[in-house]
Design brief:
Length: about 350
């Protein structure tokens, strides 16, 4: 694997390798010193042309936990506002020493274009491109789901997939890169996927996806899902009106207190169905405030798992690709006096 651009191109073997590596990486978070030397001397650039809290900060934390140097670049306040192109921006950052570029961009396909362009030798990691894909979000969701699924089944975590798990993805599928990346990865891992949305928030061609489509959230809950993934209503990507009112959307497609109670009533002595949200949550729109508080711990688990998954991805992409390094320069004689070695 040279880049991580999408989950649609990820084999089952590669996906499980990332998840298993992330499980190993998660142990670092509980150490007194939360660091590994794996990427010492390597430089990761976070190149964000869209806003982010979780993804950018957790890529930064992941890089630092692997001892990489990190440069943070935001489109706002940069020379992009003066018309500098993506090609010139990336080549500038590579000249400063970047080995990997973690990019979030408003244009679908931007990460693939960068990886395929020949503009850079950096590894490219897609941190969200338009409405297309957000692969590390789907991987952290899969890590979270796999832990819950293994708890229920008593199966070992390492090497296990999500075969037989029923997952509902609910809400603004049309604008969601999280939904697309999850559909491909969940199917690769053997889960059954249902989508729940108003017809106006489903993409053209959804009938060709390997999913079951539901228009009624209540009827979809009758299928006894093992997990429900709520999506944010992406008002910033909506040029027009996609549903009559927010109240109507919440009533029909939101995780209301009543629907949360239905999920909690399915407690089987081990757990209730898992509820995930990629964040940020719109309380009172796709999820009631009480439901949001009730699932907040799981949502924070997703965030913590994001650091482990991003450590795994950076480690797998960068640690094996180190070019032959020249010998370290010898110190000038004048530096000998700072030596801590014992003298005769
Ligand atoms: N889930 C997610 O991508 O969140 P951010 O936009 O805060 O990075």
């Amino acid at each position: 694997m040279r880049h991580l651009l999408s989950t649609s191109a990820l084999s089952r073997e590669d996906a499980l390798n990332i998840l298993d590596t992330a499980e190993e990486m998660s142990g670092v978070a509980t150490r007194h010193v939360k660091k590994l030397p794996t990427l010492r001397g390597r430089t990761v650039v976070n190149l964000f042309f869209e806003d982010s809290t979780r993804t950018r900060i957790s890529f930064e934390a992941a890089s630092k936990r692997l001892s990489a140097d990190v440069m943070n670049f935001s489109g706002k306040g940069s020379s992009v506002s003066k018309g500098e192109s993506l090609k010139d921006t990336v080549q500038t950052l590579e000249s400063i020493g970047a080995d990997a570029v973690v990019m979030r961009h408003w244009a679908s396909g931007a990460a693939a274009q960068l990886a395929d362009s020949g503009w850079t030798d950096c590894a490219v990691i897609n941190a969200g491109d338009g409405t297309h894909e957000h692969p590390t979000q789907a991987l952290l969701d899969a890590l979270t789901l796999r832990r819950g699924w293994a708890d229920r089944s008593g199966e070992a975590l390492r090497g296990s997939d999500l075969a037989g798990m029923k997952v509902l993805i609910v809400g603004d599928i049309l604008h969601s890169r999280v939904a697309r990346s999850n559909v491909w990865l969940l199917r690769t891992l053997g889960a059954e996927v249902g989508l729940v949305a108003p017809p106006t928030l489903l993409p053209v061609g959804v009938e060709t996806w390997p999913v079951t489509v539901h228009y009624s959230f209540d009827e979809a809950l009758d299928t006894a899902p093992d997990a429900v993934m709520m999506l944010r209503v992406q008002a910033e990507r909506m040029g027009g009106s996609f549903f009559p009112t927010v109240a109507e959307y919440t009533r029909r497609w939101g995780l209301t207190d009543e629907r949360m109670a239905r999920l909690e009533a399915r407690f089987d002595g081990v757990s209730t169905p898992m509820v995930l949200h990629p964040g940020p949550m719109n309380r009172g729109v796709e999820i009631s405030s009480a439901a949001a508080d009730s699932v907040q711990n799981r949502v924070l688990d997703q965030v913590a798992n994001g650091v482990s998954v991003r450590m795994a991805v950076l480690h797998l992409l960068l640690s094996g690709s180190r070019a032959a390094e020249p010998a370290a320069p010898s110190l000038p004689h004048s530096a000998d006096r700072f030596s801590t070695g014992s003298s005769a």
